[in-house]
Amino acid sequence: MSPSPSHDALTWVPAMLRLKPARLPIGHSLRSGITVGAPFVIGVLTGHVLIGMWIGLATLLLSAGEREGSHRLNLRILLISTPIAASAYLLGFIQHLPTAWLVLVMAALAVGSGIISGYGAAFSVGGMQFLLVAAIAIGVPGIDNWWQPIGWYVVGAAFYAALMAADFALERRRPQRQSITALLRALSALAAARSDDLTDGSNATPVARAAAISSLGNARTVYLTGRGSAAGHAPEWDAFARTLSAAESVIALLVGTTAAKAAGEATIRLEALTSGKTAGIERSLSPSPLMHRLDELTQALAGMHLGLALPPVPMPQHLPDGGAAPSRSLSPRESLRSRLVVGPDVVAAAGRLALCYGIAVAAREYDPYNHWFWVPLTVALVMKPDFGSVIGRALLRIVGTIGGAALATVVIAVVPKGVGTAIVIGLLAAAVPWAMLRGYAMQAVAISSAVILLVDVIEPGAGSTNYSAQRIAATAIGGLIVVVFGYLLWPSARRANITGRLASSTEALARYAAAAATAIPSDPAQRDTRHEELVRARLAVYSSLSDVRLQLQRGLSEPPPANVQARSWIPAVAALEQLSDAVSRYAASRLAGERVAEVSDGVVKEIAGLGTVPDPEQIRTSSERVTRTLLAPI
Description:
Shape: globular
Strand content: under 5%
C-alpha cells in the first residue's frame, strides 16, 4: 500500500480530526477512574499526596496500555510492561549527569524501547511507558530515593490487576467470546441441516449456510477491529485468525460433503463445542478431512483462551508469542535468536525515536525553565512505538497534547490542589478508555491533561498556574522535534509500504521452504551446513515479517480511507505468519523422520509469487492452502 502523490499531511489532519463512533467501555473506564483517582484522594486525606501521585501515575499508564482483546492478552501486557516501565525510575539517580552523557544514555535506551516494540503488544506498551517514566525521572528534581516510586508503581499495578481480575470474572460477554460462540452455534446448525438434507432429502442447507457465512463475517469484523490495535505478535489474535480459517474450511466441507455419517458426526462434535458438554466426545469419531478441520478448529479455540469447554485434542507446541514450535534442529540459543530478530525497518524506526528523544533530552540546556522534561515526554507521547510514522497523525497528536496541556492549566488555575484536583484526575482517567476509541486527538487530550495534573503535585511551589505557557511551549518544541527529525528528514518514514515489504517476506519464506525441503545429508559436516542454511533462512523470514508488521501498523494509524485499506491486509499478513510457522513445523517433522508431504518446486514458486498478488484475500486463501499442504497428515 503506497500513498498517492497527494500525500499531504495538512489535507489529512481534517480527516483524522473526525471522531470515530465508540461505545463507552464501562469496565475499563471504571477501573481507570478508580485506580487513578482513589489513591490520589486517599493521599490527600491522609497527608500522603506524593504516594497517591506515584500510584495514580502507574495506573494511568496501565489503563492507557490496555488493548481491545482477550483478558489474557491484557493481563500479559500488564505483567510484561510493569517491570519495564517501573525500572525507568532508576534513571532518576543519573539525572545530574552532564547533559552530553545524559543524552547518549537516553538515546541508547530509546533505541532499546523502539526495538522491543517489534516483539509484541506487551513490549510495545512497555517501551512507550518506559520513555514516559524516564522523562519524569530525569527531569523532576528533589526526589532523593527513586526506589520508592518503583515500589509504588508495583503497588499500583497490583491494584489495577485486582480490579482487572474482578472485571474479568464478572464480565464474560466480550466481543471475542460473543462472536465465536455465535459462530459455533451457526456451524452446529449448518452441520445439523446438512445431516438432515442428506438423510431425508430436505433443503435446509442454503439457509444454514447463509447464516454461518454471516456469523463468520461478523467474527472477522471483530478480529480485524481488535487485531488492528495490537502491535507485533498477539497470541490470542493469532489464534483468532486460525479459528476463522478453520471455521471457513468447515463451512466449505460441510456444504460439499455427500456423506450423511460425516455430517452427523460433525453435528455431534459442534454441538459439544457449543454446549460445553464434551464428556465422552472422542477426538475424531472417524478420520476424514472434515474431522481434521474440526480438530484444527478446536486447537485454535484453545489458543484463544475464551474459557470454552473443549474436547481433548492433541495440541501442537507453541512459542510464547503464539507461533508454532521452532524446528527441533534449533538449539535453545538459536530458538531465542529466532524470536528476538527484527527487521531493518524496525531498527530504523528505533533509530529515529532515539534521535528525537536524545534531542529532546538536550532541552535541559536550552530550556531555561524547570519544565524542560515535558519536551522528551511529548516526544514519547507523539512517537508512541506501536503507532506508525505518519506526519498527519503526528501533528494531530501534537494538537491533542497541546489541548491537554491547556485543559490541565485551566484546572490548575481554577481548582485548588487537594481533593478537588484528585476528583478531576479521576474523571479524566475514566475518560481515557473512551477517548482512545474515539480518536488520537481525544486520547492525547485525556492522557496528557491527566499526566500534567498528576505530576504537578511534585513540582516546586504551591501552585503552577504561571507554568501554562512553559508547558505548552515545551509540548510544541517536542512536537516540532518529532516532525522535523522523526519524519521530514526521512522520506521512507512518511508512508506505509505494505506491499513492498510483503514481497520481500514471501521471497524469504520461499527460500525457507526450499531449504526445509532439501534432503538431510548423512554426513555430519554436510548436515551442519544444511542446518546453518536453514537457520539463516528462518531468521530472514522472521526479520522480514517484523518489517511487514511495522508497515501494517503505520497503515492502520492513518486516517480513512488509508487505514481501511490497511485493515484489509491483516488476514493476509496473519496467514503468512501461519505459513512461516507451518514451514518450521514441517522442517521439524522432517528432521524427526516423520512422514510429511513433499514440497515441490511449484509450491516454492507459489509462495514466492504471493508477494506479487494485489488481492490480500487471494494471498490469505493461497497461504492457508499451502499451510494445509505442509501440515496434512500422511
